[in-house]
Amino acid sequence: MKQYGEIAQLLARRIEPLARELFPLGYREGNEWKVGSLAGEAGRSLSICLRGPKSGVFADFAGSLAGDALDLVAEALFRGTKREAVEWARRWLGLSAGAAVVPARPAAVARVSSEGDTARRTAFASAAFYAAQPEIAGTPVAAYLLGRGIDLRELGRQPRALRYHPALACVEAERPLPAMVAAIVGPGGGLIGVHRTWLEQGPDGWRKASLAAPKKVIGAVSGGTIRLWRGASGRPLAQAPEGDGIVIAEGIETGLSIALACPERRVVAGVSIGNMRSLVLPPAVAEVVIAADNDAPDSQAATALQCAIDHFIREGKAVRVARSPVGGDFNDLLVSG
């Protein structure tokens, strides 16, 4: 059987007919296929890239899920189970005999709205995080971050949101891999999900694993953040002093790069640009700086960024957008320096 990454690539090459078959109520908008959600209803919260280097990549802003073309099949048809998705995809691609029948969509609706399924994912995320090693000094996580120009020793302590797991199950690799795991915390302060970055050792040290999707999220992500640095006050976000500010980065590496450069700033990772519009910040936080990636002005990410800006303005926050003058984000700036 072909590896998951190969199947995902083959699906990505035929992503438009796949999107039309999975989501007949959707529509094309530029280089993206739009539909309401993974349940398949009309709308625009689910976006599937049809062209370019991100062909096949999807983001479901309604359900806070994202991934490649194989993930899309798994989430839309098989409750996230990749083995079933692979069998269906092989038939759809003509690699196996038999018809690739799209299951009844009501099952997908039940999956999206199921509280039990959300609880199961959150429990899995919690177990993965607490099974990981709290201290990351001297581990592949510290080596990976150092390779990205991020030396946590300069901060004096590591963010408690980050941990090291020496052998975290990876469906795509079909075996456990070392991983950086990060706690995604909801507005109430509890863990609601986990961000996983699988790692491998290359000729120049530790790096992201050579997978189609080396970074993945599990759990109820909507409204959650990865809390990386408390800034000058040293207080938890819920106890932020009056008039406090916050920097919201898209990814962990970008957020840590900013914390190193500006340790007086409170820094969180918003998991994705689409998730930022769901964040609930304490009234004491008066200023929001969004550390945006350098995406194309007409991209889905640019639209999501504007939604986030509008959201925080409605919340009464002063909003600024900061962009790296080099590369795609502030981690590129740190490495280039």
Architecture overview:
The termini are far apart. The chain has 3 domains: 4-113, DNA Primase, Chain A (Alpha-Beta Complex), CATH 3.90.580; 115-216, no CATH class; 222-337, 3-Layer(aba) Sandwich (Dna Topoisomerase Vi A Subunit, Chain: A, domain 2). It is α+β, with helices and mostly antiparallel strands and 337 residues long. It contains 10 helices and 15 strands. 31% of the residues lie in helices and 25% in strands.
The helix-strand sequence is HHEEEEEHHHHHEEEEEEEHEEHEH
Strand order of the largest sheet: 1-2-3-4-5
Main beta sheet: 5 strands, antiparallel
The helicity comes to 25-40%
Treating each run of at least 4 consecutive H or I residues as one helix, how many helices? Answer: 10
- Helix/strand-derived category reads alpha+beta
β-strand percent reads: 25-35%
**Extended strand count:** 15
Q: How many domains make up the coordinates? A: 3
* Uncertain stretches: 105-116
Q: Tell me the overall shape.
A: globular
Mean pLDDT: 87
CATH class of the largest domain: Alpha Beta
